[in-house]
């Protein structure tokens, strides 16, 4: 095996960031493009050092006339490497990027659960991280959206999504594939400028590279990395503040139905009460995060900036102030020192 600087870098990254344990089962999402081929080749070459059991999963969105041939190409690669291959094909063509992403993660999770894989591994790169930061910034977002592509996150119970290539650019994966003569399947939809991400990739980033910073991809990826650590810290601090404002541990939990929360914090009671005196002492950034965490439990869709702001405003609002109904019908009202959601 040829040991390149990229092999060494990924080996160090996996070890230093504790992305995988030894002797685990890894399901690698392979589209056939350069990033995923670079990923599977690196993991294959590192397999003897880590003792992994590798499998390849391919998701056919049925976007293109050649998607079935694309799937066969990836299957043949898996056979040539002696790796189990799993294919999931959409029942009908999926025409939106968001819907395709949701379906893809659901399909990968189902394959992993059915075949006892602990990790799902994707080939997202520093270039993807830069594009995601720009895409979310343009649409409007906070720090969470700017660092949305993280190194790892739980997908379902017992299954972790991992992205080992987040410090590698797309030009590096291309060079790697050329060096090892990996047969890349060119996806024609990557050139279709009706998709916003493609316009960012094909038009905006090259413009920024030529006119502002030749290393803009790496610079934006580093910004996302810095923001990720800050977001993790703020989320933990907000959770602690929320639990204090709810009186968790003080016996004041209400007597109505329970709203389930994350596994890292106690369940919510409904109607839900938040102590305004506790929240008033906190910085605005933490107040907003507390309100977003609360809204995440009562809204079916992500809380908007407007939803968070109108709930945050009640922290210093006059007694008996209240919001108009949130989606789903819940209303927040000030009752003395308390904000009550009911």
Summary tags:
single chain, about 350 residues, six-stranded mixed sheet, three-stranded antiparallel sheet, 11 strands, elongated
From the alpha-carbon coordinates, what is the Rg to the nearest angstrom? 23 Å
Shape: elongated
Strand ordering within the main sheet: 3-2-1-4-6-5
Order of SSEs, N→C? HEHEHEHEHHEEHHHEEEHHHEE
What proportion strand? 5-15%
* Low-confidence regions: 250-264
Helix-and-strand structural type: alpha/beta
Helix content: 40-55%
User: What characterizes the major β-sheet?
Assistant: 6 strands, mixed
Overall mean confidence score, pLDDT? 90
Number of strands: 11
Tally of individual helices = 12
Termini gap: 63 Å
Question: Could you please describe the fold and organization of this structure?
Answer:
By secondary structure, the chain is an alpha/beta fold. It has helices spanning 5-16, 34-50, 67-81, 97-114, 126-139, 143-146, 170-179, 196-211, 216-245, 276-280, 284-298, 305-312, and strands spanning 25-29, 53-60, 85-89, 119-121, 152-156, 159-162, 258-259, 268-269, 272-275, 332-335, 338-341. Helix 5 packs across helix 8 and helix 9 (216-245) packs across helix 11. The longest helix is centred in the C-terminal third of the chain and has 30 residues, at 216-245. It is elongated, with a radius of gyration of 23 Å. The model is unreliable at 250-264 (pLDDT under 50).
């Amino acid at each position: 095996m040829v040991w390149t600087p990229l092999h060494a870098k990924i080996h160090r990254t996996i070890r230093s960031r504790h992305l995988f344990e030894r002797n685990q089962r890894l399901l690698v999402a392979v589209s056939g493009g350069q990033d995923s081929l670079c990923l599977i080749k690196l993991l294959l070459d590192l397999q003897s050092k880590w003792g992994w059991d590798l499998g390849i999963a391919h998701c056919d969105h049925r976007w293109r006339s050649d998607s079935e041939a694309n799937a066969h190409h990836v299957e043949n690669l898996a056979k040539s490497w002696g790796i189990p291959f799993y294919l999931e094909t959409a029942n009908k063509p999926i025409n939106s990027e968001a819907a395709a992403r949701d379906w893809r993660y659901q399909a990968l999770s189902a394959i992993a659960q059915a075949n006892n894989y602990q990790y799902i591994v994707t080939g997202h790169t520093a270039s993807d991280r830069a594009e995601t930061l720009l895409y979310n910034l343009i649409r409007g977002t906070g720090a969470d959206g700017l660092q949305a592509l993280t190194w790892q996150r739980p997908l379902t119970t017992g299954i972790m999504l991992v992205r080992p290539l987040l410090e590698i650019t797309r030009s590096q994966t291309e060079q790697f594939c050329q060096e090892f003569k990996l047969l890349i399947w060119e996806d024609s939809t990557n050139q279709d400028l009706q998709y916003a991400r493609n316009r960012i990739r094909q038009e905006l980033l090259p413009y920024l590279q030529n006119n502002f910073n030749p290393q803009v991809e790496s610079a934006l990826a580093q910004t996302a990395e810095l923001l990720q650590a800050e977001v993790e810290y703020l989320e933990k601090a907000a959770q602690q503040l929320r639990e204090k404002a709810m009186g968790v541990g003080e016996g004041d939990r209400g007597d109505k139905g329970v709203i389930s929360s994350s596994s890292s914090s106690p369940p919510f009671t409904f109607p839900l009460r938040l102590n305004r005196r506790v929240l008033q002492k906190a910085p605005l950034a933490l107040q907003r995060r507390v309100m977003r965490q609360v809204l995440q439990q009562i809204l079916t869709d992500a809380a908007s900036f407007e939803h968070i702001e109108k709930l945050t405003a009640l922290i210093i609002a006059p007694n008996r102030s209240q919001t108009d109904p949130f989606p789903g019908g819940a209303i927040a009202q000030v009752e003395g020192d308390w904000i009550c959601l009911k």
